[in-house]
Each structure stands twice: as C-alpha cells, then as structure tokens.
Write a structure and sequence with these properties.
Strand order of the largest sheet: 3-2-1-4-5-6-10
Distance between the termini: 50 Å
CATH topology of one domain: Rossmann fold
Number of helices: 11
CATH class of one domain: Alpha Beta
Number of strands: 12
Order of helices and strands: EHEEHEHHEHEEHEEHEEHEHHH
CATH architecture of one domain: 3-Layer(aba) Sandwich
Radius of gyration: 19 Å
Structural class: alpha/beta
Largest sheet: 7 strands, parallel
Length: 315
C-alpha cells in the first residue's frame, strides 16, 4: 500500500509515520509538510518503510504541480495539514479559514483527479457547546463551531461531503477529540499537553474560572492510529463521518490525574474566550456500529507526557 500524509510532521502525523507500518503493509509513505513549525525532528530515525518527503504549502495551488509529477499510484491520502491553534484563530479568523479551506480544496481536487481515497482529519470542536451528549447523526443545526478553527473544519467537511454526493470522491471524515499522547512532533497548546508542560515546569495551570467542570472529548493517539489502520485495512471509504473519542473528561478530571504524577500543582484562573465556550460530550455512535475497539488510556498518556520532563528542575 502506498500512502500520502499531508501535515505529516505534526503531532498526529509524526506518530502515524512511526506506527502505521506496524499495523498495515506499506510499500511507501509520501510525506508532505510546509515545515512552518520546523518539526524537523519528525523526520529523524524513520524506519520500517520507505519514505519520501516533499516540502510544500498545500494552501498554495502552485504546490500541487509537485504532486502531479508523482509517478506512483497511491491508495489513500490522509489529510492532516492545517493551522490548528483554536484560541489563536480568534485573532486571525480570515487567515485561518482561508489557509485551511484552500489546502483542503486543493487536496480534494488532487484526489478527485487521481482517484485517490481521502481520509480527512476534522475535529469534534465543530459541535461547540452542547447540553446533551451528541453524535455524528445530529443535524447541521446542532453544529455550533465557536472558533475560526472549528468553522474551517465544518466548511471543509461540507466541501468533501458535496464531492462524495457527486460520486467524484471516496472519503472518510474523522472528527477527532483533543489529542493526548506522545509523538516526535507533539504540540503543547492543546489542553492536556499544555497542562502537563505547565505543571512540569512548576508553572500554574491556566484555567478559565468557570471551566473546571466543563466536559470535552479527548483522544489517545493510540486510538487515533488504530482507527486509521482499521479503516485502511478494511478499505472503508463510504463517505461517512465518524467521531473518534477515547473519553469525555472535565478539566478537573485532567487536573486530578496530573496531580498524581506532578508535585505542587497550582491553578491560575484566567480570561480566555474560547475556553469559556466549550462544554460538550461526544459519542462514537458510527464507530460502535463497526465494532471498533478503543484501547487508549488518557491517564497513561498524561503520565508519559509528564515523564518527558521528569529530569527538569524548574523554579
């Protein structure tokens, strides 16, 4: 199997590069990344498969010229490339939406032209604040994205679904929960990783004053890799949307876990518009119908993240 992964050097992609070849027989992985975040370390020590790297900004249509020169036939394109910091997206809404949407539009066009099935990484943030547990089978009226990042994901989903309905594209859309777990290209602006870093550096954990009991969906990278491997092995590209969530947790749940493995944890209540908006729980209804088994453990991923910093003495 030949696979293309866009945004492959980031938190998710770098883990896929290491672990996907353990789950499926891969002949080649084409890595595409714009290196905007300079995660060169994600290219270190790649093994178990053949890799090729292309530095390209997929939001720029001219970059697709590089892809058109590729001779090999690819069996799937996993599209992860995106600007991802939801909170910072509030400060540059137009740039966020245009960048992410244009990149996806170009990727979709490439997949259509070359008849390549697409796996698209969306986000459970498209649900926004919800009073009840919600799943993929809700109506569009129930989707309440509350950041430009989430808006861009929903806009891109609609583009992909329109192509699926026209039968010009085979695709699967995953709505991933907030990521937890180790990788070479991991980022530290999402909740669990940021809290782990702050506590390890003896810094106060910054929490919105009303957020402690707000629930949100989280996803262990182990489950994310396994679900992609499961869909590739079974060639599931029937045009459906799937939530992928290991566990719904409150901020207070996460802090309690961190306190088990990090000493002298302190809290600092802060003002943050985006953190005050999101409280929701998500069900994996469509994955449950496929009997996919989740094996991830959020507490274990938190412990492993804190252990990354165990030899740092910070005051």
């Amino acid at each position: 199997m030949n696979i293309i992964i866009t945004g492959a050097l980031g938190h998710i992609g770098s883990r896929l590069l290491d672990d996907l070849p353990k789950l499926i027989k891969i002949k080649k992985i084409l890595i595409i990344d714009n290196l905007l975040t300079q995660r060169y370390s994600s290219l270190f020590y790649l093994k178990n498969s053949n890799y090729e790297f292309i530095e390209a900004d997929l939001s720029n249509k001219d970059s697709l010229i590089q892809l058109e020169k590729i001779k090999e036939k690819y069996d799937c394109l996993i599209h992860l490339a995106a600007m991802t910091n939801a909170e910072s997206s509030l400060l540059m809404k137009k740039k966020f939406i245009n960048n992410n949407y244009n990149a996806t539009k170009n990727v979709v066009s490439y997949c259509e032209k070359n008849n390549i099935p697409l796996i698209y990484a969306s986000s459970t943030s498209v649900y926004g604040t919800q009073k009840k547990i919600i799943d993929e089978n809700c109506t569009n009226d129930n989707l309440k994205p509350q950041s430009p990042y989430a808006e861009s994901k929903l806009k891109e989903e609609k583009l992909i679904l329109s192509k699926i309905n026209k039968r010009s594209l085979k695709a699967t859309i995953f709505r991933f929960g907030t990521i937890s777990g180790l990788s070479k290209g991991m980022r530290f602006h999402t909740a669990i990783n940021k809290f782990c870093y702050q506590s390890s550096m003896n810094l106060p954990i910054t929490v919105w004053k009303t957020a402690l009991n707000q629930k949100r969906p989280y996803l262990d990278l182990i489950d994310l890799v396994n679900v992609i491997g499961f869909f590739l092995n079974n060639k599931i590209f029937e045009g459906k949307v799937y939530n992928v969530v290991t566990k719904n947790l409150t901020v207070n749940d996460i802090i309690k876990i961190i306190k088990k493995y990090s000493k002298n944890v302190k809290l600092l209540k802060v003002n943050s518009k985006i953190m005050n908006q999101l409280s929701y729980e998500v069900k994996n209804s469509n994955l449950d119908m496929l009997n996919f088994k989740f094996i991830g453990n959020i507490e274990k991923s938190i412990r492993e993240t804190i252990n990354l910093f165990k030899n740092i003495n910070s005051k």
